[in-house]
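Listing S7. Sequence submitted for prediction.
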Amino acid sequence: MLSPLEEIEKALDILGLPKLINKEDIRTQYHFLAKKNHPDLGGDIKEMEQINAAYRFLMKYIEEFRYTFDEEEIAKQFPGAEHAQRFKP
């Protein structure tokens, strides 16, 4: 299972975005990738599913928490995630 930081980094990577972005940047990039990869326009279904999931995940994070994807900010929002990792073998 991925940590919150790893999930966010994966979603940013799928959408091809840097860490310092805002909601509009995510929306703009999503629409660009959706037009390019939509199955009705000859795109791959699995790739479009990944794009949709990454978009939903990042938008949910921004709406519920913060506008930055900085490691320190993520650790503040998910304090238990790092604590559990320290005790794994």
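Caption to Listing S7: primary sequence and predicted structure tokens for the chain studied. The chain has one domain: 4-86. Residues 45-64 form the longest helix (20 residues).
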